[in-house]
Amino acid sequence: MLKGALIGCGFFSRNHLHAWRQLEGVDIVALCDTDAQRLSAMAAEFDIRRTYASAEQLFAREQLDFVDIATTVRSHRALVEMAAKARVPCICQKPFAPTLEDARAMVAACSSAGVPLMVHENFRWQKPVQAVHRAVREGAIGTPFWGRFSFRSAFDVYQAQPYLAEGQRFILEDLGIHILDVARFLLGDAKVIGSSTQRVNQRIKGEDVATILLSHQAGATSVVDCSYASAREQELFPQTLIEVDGSEGSIRVDAGYRLTVHRLGGGTRIDSCEPPLHAWAERPWFNIQDSVLKIQAHWLECLRHKYEPQTSGRDNLRTLELVESAYSAAGAPRVVR
Ligand code: NAD
Ligand code: 89Y
What we know:
8-stranded mixed beta sheet
């Protein structure tokens, strides 16, 4: 039985705790939050007896196999460095760090302490994304040369996550980061060749629309487009629509988790890639919730077999570099005349 602790008992952590409870061979033995009310509410809901108001106390008093950090970004560096110092393997929620400098320091701290580190970058574990990955890997469409990863919604994310309306940065750092990781997962590492950001909703501080053009090392070009200002007849939150064209066919993930794989001169296969709705999950979040279960299962597998997690801290630096480059490119557009 692997013994873990969770730091940060806020809105999203409930999904982590439900998923840990569903997985075998793992027990969350302690909780930590600086907010006493949230801490005791979560401890009562999940029947976790040992609670801490400070992470220092948690690391000093508990013998842990891992720690799961589900706090917001500003606290990540201090908490990851504490875990490294205590030699406790750790998972850290996205966005991993507010700057690349912090992120590199966190990766270095864990690496020199010999401590496994995974960023909770769960979107690539969503069922539709995994289905596209499988089809590409099996050669169903030949060599991919173009992709589009599109997340467009007007869902009120500010209600459960008010901090999203308050930062100078919003959609790229919060959501675009996931979609850029999906683009990397499906088409390989990339560089940003163009980016534009917009703020449509004037009641928030950061950008709520981002459009990024990527050039992938393996030769493909892709578009990552994200919006929280796009009211549409059918609200699709939190579905990512995917298009990948290859030398021998194409893949589409359309609204309603509809997967189409078409082969040049051959047949078309249409399947549902709708994720399971776990007993603790709810619509429309269930796609994200299932991917939390999947990434946490991956972490347990990695810990047991000493594999590097797919979205290790080291790997996540590539995704963060894309986020930073997208902000820089949007801030300094080069106009072609
Ligand atoms: P939240 O503000 O609701 O909860 C964060 C909690 O952390 C709070 O209760 C706060 O008191 C606690 N906290 C902060 N600093 C702490 C510290 N140093 N020690 C102990 N506790 C501390 O935030 P949330 O909406 O639950 O989001 C948490 C993280 O999850 C964010 O980084 C967010 O981007 C991420 N998130 C990820 C997904 C996903 O799909 N991967 C979805 C939603 C949110
Ligand atoms: O915080 C974000 C995330 O990671 O997934 C969706 C979200 O909750 C709002 O954009």
